Amino acid sequence: MNIGDIARITKLPAKTIRYYEDIGLVNPARDDNAYRRFNDSDVHKLGFIGRARSLGFTIEDCRALLALYEDKDRASADVKQIAQHHLALIDVKIAELKAMRTALGHLSESCAGDHRPDCPILEGLSVSSQTKSG
Amino acid sequence: MNIGDIARITKLPAKTIRYYEDIGLVNPARDDNAYRRFNDSDVHKLGFIGRARSLGFTIEDCRALLALYEDKDRASADVKQIAQHHLALIDVKIAELKAMRTALGHLSESCAGDHRPDCPILEGLSVSSQTKSG
DNA sequence: ATAGGGGTTCCTGTAACTGGAAGGTCAAGA
DNA sequence: TCTTGACCTTCCAGTTACAGGAACCCCTAT
């Protein structure tokens, strides 16, 4: 199967699949015309990577997870450690975004959003609010 | 004041301040020795940018917000529109991260995380779960 | 003179691709 | 046979918002 077929199956852009080959995540065979030829194992690998990426794992995480997947003697603890670390990062990001959301939400709510120039959002951005201690 | 002083005041790295000058967000004067010389207006601008960045606004958003700040005839609606758009992006990101968190949380919970090789996390990544329709 | 702690520019690298140019390949149709 | 169109190839540049580091200049104190 050619790259276009694989793109349809895995729902990864062909560009992305070429990139994954570039960085050594997959290693499809080549036909005489230099076209990449993918087998079932390649498809499975790319699916695996796609799903890991959609869970937010970095490319290097994906590489590590793939290696663990292919090591039938791995300890599940090794996999879980990667997952837990990633979960912690996700939690941090969620917390940061929620803090932004709250702060900006307050500013935005207090802004009339009309034709007048008075704008609490700009005022809020223009002063260093030192609500904490003094 | 030199760049180091401004870095301390605004809590932005000197590298970042130079970068902001590169892309035209600020335009400090220069001394004879080529050192950047910042005035109060520069400091205020950088503080403004820093606070906007900490709320997650992109650099281009910051540029637009600064322009609006300096346009005393702006309509607050223009500012609010940028803020609301950004809030919507934040909400999308939070939702995405929460979905990841949930999915990965389930996988991770079901993994023993011990010396044995059996790992629901890897199994989950290796199959395309088609829970939705058929 | 020297040491240190500033400052300067310029180049490279980051993450994970995406877009586009220039060109080869293949199957179908006139 | 020629052409059209959809494939495929490689390679280079751009994205975001900086950070790291090299090579070098400036200033002050000792």
Q: Look at the structure and give the CATH class of the largest domain in chain A.
A: Mainly Alpha
CATH topology value of the largest domain in chain A:
Multidrug-efflux Transporter Regulator, Chain: A, Domain 2
- The tally of domains of chain A stands at 2
Mean pLDDT of chain A: 95
Return residue spans of chain A where pLDDT drops below 50 for at least 5 consecutive residues: none
The topology string of helices and strands of chain A comes to: HHEEHHHH
| Strands in their spatial order, largest beta sheet of chain A | 1-2
Main sheet overview of chain A: 2 strands, antiparallel
User: From the 3D coordinates, which CATH architecture of the largest domain in chain A would you assign?
Assistant: Orthogonal Bundle
Report helical residue fraction of chain A: 55-70%
Shape of chain A: elongated
Give an overview of the whole structure.
The structure is a homodimer of 134-residue chains. The first copy, chain A, is mainly α and 134 residues long. The first copy, chain A, has 2 domains: 1-58, Multidrug-efflux Transporter Regulator, Chain: A, Domain 2, CATH 1.10.1660.10; 75-127. Helix content of chain A is 63%, strand content 3%. Chain A is built from 6 helices and 2 strands. Chain A has helices at 3-10, 14-22, 40-54, 59-70, 76-109, 120-126, and strands spanning 29-30, 36-37. Chain A has a two-stranded antiparallel ribbon. In chain A, a hairpin with a 5-residue loop joins β1 and β2 (36-37). In chain A, α3 (40-54) crosses α4 (59-70). Chain A is elongated, with a radius of gyration of 24 Å. Chain A starts with a helix and ends in an 8-residue tail after the last helix. The mean pLDDT of chain A is 95. Chains A and B meet through α3, α4, α5 and α6 of A and α3, α4, α5 and α6 of B. Chain A binds a DNA duplex (30 and 30 nucleotides) through residues 2-4, 13-16, 18-19, 23, 33-36, 53, 58-59.
